[in-house]
Structure to design on (200 residues):
C-alpha cells in the first residue's frame, strides 16, 4: 500500500475512534476504549507517529477524571489571521474565528477557536497550561482537530471539551514531524492534569 493510502487509512481509523467516543458519551468506559485503540494504532499502523515502534508499550496518561470534562459556549468573532509556528521548520495559517468559554477545575477559562485556512477547513483547538514543560510537552497539547478526526462533538454553540482526551502533537513522538505549537494566547493558568502526559 502506498504511503498516501496508509495515511488515508490512519485518519479513517482516528475518525472512527472519536465517533465511538462521541457515541459513548462521558465517563471512563469510552475513554478507555479510545486509549486502547490509540495505543494499538501507534503500535501497529505504518503511519504511526512513534519513532521506535518495537519498544513502544503504550502512551502515558493521567487517570480519567470527570472533573476535567466541560461544555464550552462558542462566541463567534470577526475572522483574524493567525499563523502558528511549528516545532520544527514551517508554519500553518489559521483563522481565529471566535472563543469558547467554560469552567474547569472551578476556574473560568477561555480559549481561542481556530479554523484551518485551507481547502475544506476544520476546527483546531490547541492549548497550553501550567503543566507544560513538566508533566506535558512544553509546546502544548491538542484537544480538537477536526481535519484529523479529533472531534468530541457540539450542540449548537455548545462544544464538548473533555481534557481527558487532550493529546500531544506527533513531534513529541518523533523528530521527523513538525507540528503547529499552541499559541501563547491559548494559555490556561492552571495545570490540566488530564489527558496524555510525559512518561515519568
Amino acid at each position: 500500500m502506498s504511503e498516501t493510502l496508509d495515511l488515508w487509512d490512519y485518519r479513517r481509523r482516528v475518525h472512527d475512534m472519536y465517533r465511538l467516543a462521541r457515541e459513548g458519551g462521558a465517563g471512563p468506559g469510552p475513554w478507555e476504549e479510545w486509549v486502547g485503540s490509540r495505543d494499538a494504532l501507534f503500535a501497529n499502523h505504518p503511519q504511526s507517529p512513534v519513532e521506535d515502534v518495537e519498544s513502544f508499550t503504550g502512551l502515558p496518561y493521567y487517570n480519567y477524571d470527570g472533573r476535567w470534562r466541560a461544555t464550552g459556549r462558542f462566541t463567534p468573532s470577526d475572522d483574524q489571521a493567525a499563523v502558528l509556528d511549528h516545532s520544527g521548520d514551517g508554519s500553518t495559517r489559521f483563522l481565529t474565528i471566535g472563543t469558547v468559554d467554560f469552567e474547569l477545575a472551578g476556574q473560568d477559562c477561555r480559549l481561542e477557536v481556530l479554523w484551518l485556512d485551507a481547502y475544506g477547513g476544520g476546527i483546531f483547538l490547541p492549548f497550553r497550561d501550567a503543566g507544560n514543560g513538566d508533566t506535558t510537552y512544553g509546546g502544548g497539547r491538542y484537544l480538537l482537530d477536526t481535519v484529523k478526526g479529533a472531534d468530541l462533538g457540539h450542540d449548537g454553540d455548545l462544544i464538548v471539551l473533555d481534557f481527558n482526551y487532550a493529546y500531544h502533537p506527533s513531534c513529541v513522538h518523533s523528530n521527523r514531524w513538525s507540528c503547529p505549537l499552541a499559541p501563547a494566547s491559548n494559555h490556561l493558568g492552571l495545570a490540566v492534569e488530564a489527558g496524555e502526559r510525559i512518561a515519568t
Observations:
- Residues 3-186 form one domain.
